[in-house]
Automatic annotation (TrEMBL):
Listed GO MF terms: G protein activity; GTP binding
GO cellular component annotations of the record: plasma membrane
InterPro entries (UniProt xref): P-loop_NTPase (IPR027417), Small_GTP-bd (IPR005225), Small_GTPase (IPR001806), Small_GTPase_Ras-type (IPR020849)
UniProt entry tagged with the keyword RNA-binding: no
Cellular localisation: Cell membrane
Protein name: small monomeric GTPase
Organism: Astyanax mexicanus
Keywords of the record: Cell membrane, GTP-binding, Hydrolase, Membrane, Nucleotide-binding
Family: Belongs to the small GTPase superfamily. Ras family.
Primary localisation category: membrane
């Protein structure tokens, strides 16, 4: 299968030596995955639905005063274009699971995406953000804000209702995901430090015992 890879460099942010974050956008076809990324990267809203096969975008931003190079993979919502799924599920460091508040089926599929991430990665602590898009279409709403929050509680992840059309909460989604990745890394570092302190104190005790 032919895979289209689009590389877009944005000039926001700072130096090229900052940490790179591999983010993956997941969700049913037509929920607005590409529109969210477009708005985030280039402040543009695509009116038409042009089904994605696979696109990659790069941008540099600052999050909490720290630079971040984002490598964002826009995936296919259509089932026939999902051949690469396992590869990007393994390679990604953080995932945006999106649905449309106007499409209950896409909301039900969100749980399926979470299970898929677990099935491939075999860990419960993969950084995830849940997104209910098209919040501007309130008159077509099929999924309440409370249901979205409830699912996010179940996933133990941040939740945003976004509008790619109006650029509501778009930056917040990406910032929250990078924060999650950073938090997880900080926990790993703290865990390693604790382990090293424990083994250090063991050897110190042994040394003291010998000296006595
Ligand atoms: N009103 C409104 N329309 C939106 C919003 N986001 C996306 N759309 C529209 O929904 C349609 C699908 O958007 P896409 O971004 O192409 O959806 P997608 O999830 O990338 O779809 P696939 O690539 O097929 O998986 C387009 O016509 C968009 O203009 C939104 O926040 N509000
Ligand atoms: Mg798309």
């Amino acid at each position: 299968m032919c895979v289209a890879v689009v590389l877009m460099e944005s000039s926001r942010g700072t130096g090229s030596h900052s940490r790179e974050y591999k983010l993956v956008m997941l969700g049913e076809g037509g929920v607005g995955k590409s529109a969210i990324i477009m708005q985030f990267i280039s402040h543009r809203f695509p009116e038409d639905h042009d089904p994605t096969i696979e696109d990659a975008y790069k941008t540099q931003i600052r999050i909490d005063d720290e630079p971040a190079n984002l490598d964002i993979l826009d995936t296919a919502g259509q089932a026939e274009f999902t051949a690469m799924r396992d590869q990007y599920m393994r390679a990604g460091e953080g995932f945006i699971i999106s649905y449309s508040i106007t499409d209950r089926r896409s909301f039900q599929e969100a749980r399926h995406f979470k299970e898929l991430i677990y099935r491939v990665r075999r860990t419960v602590d993969t950084p995830v953000v849940l997104v209910g898009n098209k919040s501007d279409l309130a008159h077509l709403r099929q999924v309440s804000m409370e249901e979205g929050k409830e699912l996010a509680r179940e996933f133990q992840c941040p939740f945003f209702e976004t509008s790619a059309a109006f650029r509501y909460y778009i930056d917040e989604v990406f910032a929250a995901l990078v924060r999650q990745i950073r938090q997880k890394e900080a926990e790993v570092v703290r865990g390693n430090e604790r382990k090293s302190r424990r083994s250090h104190s063991f050897w110190s005790r042994l040394k003291i015992a010998y000296m006595i």
